[in-house]
Amino acid sequence: MTIGEKYLHVDVTYSLLQSHGRFKEFVSYAELKERYEDIILHHINEGQFDQAIVGLERLREKGEIFAKLDDSKIPEDEAARPKKSMVKTEKLPFDLIRDIIYSHGHVLMYENSGRTLDFLDKRDRSGERIIEWELTKLMPGFMKVPFSQRNHVIDFLEDDCVTTTRCKDRAVHNLYIMFLSDLDDEEKLAEYLRRQEELLLTQEMREGQEAREILFDTEFALKCFQRNHLIRPQLKLYSVMGLYSNAVDLALNNNMIDEAKDIASKPQGETFEVIDLKKKLWLQIAFHLIHNQETEECMRLTHESDGALQIEDLLPHFDDGFRIELFKDEISDSLKSYVETIKKQKNDLSVYEKTAEDMKNELRHLRNRHFDLKGDEKCVECQRSIFGEEFYLFPCRHSYHRVSKNNFKPL
């Protein structure tokens, strides 16, 4: 067959070899004709998955040589030059590989997920993948990966979803979150959500609040976290979404007081809305501590809240058995703070009064200001006597009729 292969009709030869069960000869003939796709599909159909991946690797090597072939840099070594039959192939090697993986990759990922994903993630010296993939077309294969092997999928997607975030497809990000949740990998979830929060802040700084766009479905992610009882990722997600009150409630329900304090400190800004929100969040924590009879811890919130919570906000909520003398230092500090505030306001009031007095004097001076005009004073525009009509006189001593023959319009 090797000697007379040029006289054989390819499709007829394939059909004859397959119909007679001569699979070894079929593979040899396909290699001779460089029909790599047929070889790989044959191995997949026969359950020879390792050999199928070997075939893909050989095809990738051919594709790398083909990709390096350039009209200005033809290899001198004839052995390194791609064969004519390869150059004339209808599809380029990398395109053939993509078609095979998109169509049959789910079988390979199910049977040998580790080696298949290593093949997909093969990189060149610069650290870039040798073959670029459409991740959405790989998702059916990812879903077929056995549960115990899903960490390989996570490692594969990490570069696209976390390190570079070049993938903007929500379905891929949702898959990444689901796999991390199912594996209870809170550390990687925290890193992913932190990265998403950074991206949101960058978008907001560049394009405003309306430009905030999260790369994953928040409701789907929340359901994944709740299904797997992952509290910390839920707290982080609520913070990313700006739902601070929900986050504080969840933290308190799980007795995570320190986490609740961290969340209550997150809102930034000096607007009335932000100040009011911070006060409400700290009050949520205070009510929880009062309910659990943790009075001393509650009183410390006045210092930890960075001024958002005052002692007078807490006193009305203590029961009748509350011993106020135990917290005389805190009350004394609060009174001192009020004294300082009153002093500052008095100083500000003095400044405002002086400013108002200066303005009154200025207005009084303006009312009494006058200019002396000569009897022959003329309009600068029309050169007629300024008297007899309404006119404007400026401090520079120029005078104008309100309406002159040149239609002058006063400033």
Structural class: mainly alpha
Portion in strands: under 5%
- Estimated helix fraction: 55-70%
SSE series: HHHHHHHHHHHHHHHHHHHHEE
Mean pLDDT equals: 81
**Secondary structure: number of strands:** 2
Sheet with the most strands: spatial strand order:
1-2
Largest sheet: 2 strands, antiparallel
Distance between the termini: 102 Å
What gyration radius follows from the Cα positions, in whole Å? Answer: 39 Å
Unreliable spans: 70-89
If helices are DSSP runs of H or I spanning 4 or more residues, what is the number of helices? 20
Q: Label the overall shape.
A: flat
Identify the notable features of this structure and list them briefly.
mainly alpha; 411 residues; two-stranded antiparallel ribbon; 20 helices
